[in-house]
Amino acid sequence: MSAQGGTRAIVAALAANLAIAVAKFVAFLFSGSSSMLAESVHSVADSGNQGLLLLGGKKAKRAASEEHPFGYGRERYIYSFLVAIVLFSVGGLFALYEGYEKITHPHSLEHWYWPVGVLVFAIVAESFSFRTAIKESNPLRGSQSWVQFVRRAKAPELPVVLLEDLGALVGLVLALGGVGLALLTGDGVWDGIGTLCIGVLLIAIAIVLALETKSLLLGESADAESVRRIREAAVDGDTVTRVIHMRTLHLGPEELLVAAKIAVRHDDTAGRVAGAIDAAEQRIREAVPIARVIYLEPDVYDAARAAAGPDRAKTPGGADAAH
């Protein structure tokens, strides 16, 4: 669901940004507005970003190979990180440079109706793209706030498009404000100030995207609800009596690795333990369908060692490590 919803949001954003970029460039040529030039480059960068997200989604679908036995799911994270870099360098830094140039060498705007008309059109188009991203995100967001959704989402495309569209809308308002103040006062410096504000906004969004995508690239565990369901599914109360400790890792947005040490009875036969492990894997996959790579290690639970506490030097987080 998240992949399909993300693709729809990306395509909607790409179509909107391509149309807006052309309109902004035309408005810049007629008016000479630095805000319009910065917004034009911003729209071109956003279009390139959507292309990167689509490319990452396509590459992530490749089958696992001997060299990459866990597949290519993280390609989506890599390309999302590239989006943050492009947004920072092409969009943000260019806007800062252009704003500085306009403030130090101001000139009046010509044919003011071009930038104003294009900005109004762009706000309408970006609003459509933003609405699509919100609509596709809501089923995945559930009861989370938007901040929580952006921070916790394992599929990067929707948060990236959401932040890009939000930044684009705010940037358009800033550009409209800069152009409007330049027209009202007759001072082109306001156009440059609006451009600087756009640059700061884009850099801030790029930093947020980079930090969140970096966390995904490093490897994030499953969410708390999925971890709870996996633990409950692993135990059958007969052969498998408890989960001694467990680690989960996202190999991609829709692929989860589960590694756990499970407690079995000391007098069970090897055949019975093997059958219990197979059954536990089946229950885990039914409880959490994205748990596709599962490694379960049987062990005998030792109450004395459990009472002594986990070995934190060997176990990240230290939780449930004793056996």
Automatic annotation (TrEMBL):
Q: What is this protein called?
A: Cation diffusion facilitator family transporter
Q: Which organism does this record belong to?
A: Streptomyces thermolineatus
Database matches in Pfam families: Cation_efflux
- Cation efflux protein transmembrane domain location is 11-218
Q: InterPro entries this protein is in?
A: Cation_efflux (IPR002524), Cation_efflux_CTD_sf (IPR036837), Cation_efflux_TM (IPR058533), Cation_efflux_TMD_sf (IPR027469), SLC30A9 (IPR040177)
PANTHER family, A to Z? HUEL-CATION TRANSPORTER, PROTON-COUPLED ZINC ANTIPORTER SLC30A9, MITOCHONDRIAL
Q: Where are the transmembrane segments?
A: 6-30, 77-97, 112-134, 161-183, 189-211
Q: How does it sit in the membrane?
A: Multi-pass membrane protein
Fetch the SUPFAM superfamilies from UniProt.
Cation efflux protein cytoplasmic domain-like (SSF160240), Cation efflux protein transmembrane domain-like (SSF161111)
Q: Which domain of life is it from?
A: Bacteria
Q: What does the UniProt keyword field contain?
A: Membrane, Transmembrane, Transmembrane helix, Transport
Q: Where in the cell is it found?
A: Membrane
Q: Which Gene3D superfamilies match?
A: Cation efflux protein transmembrane domain
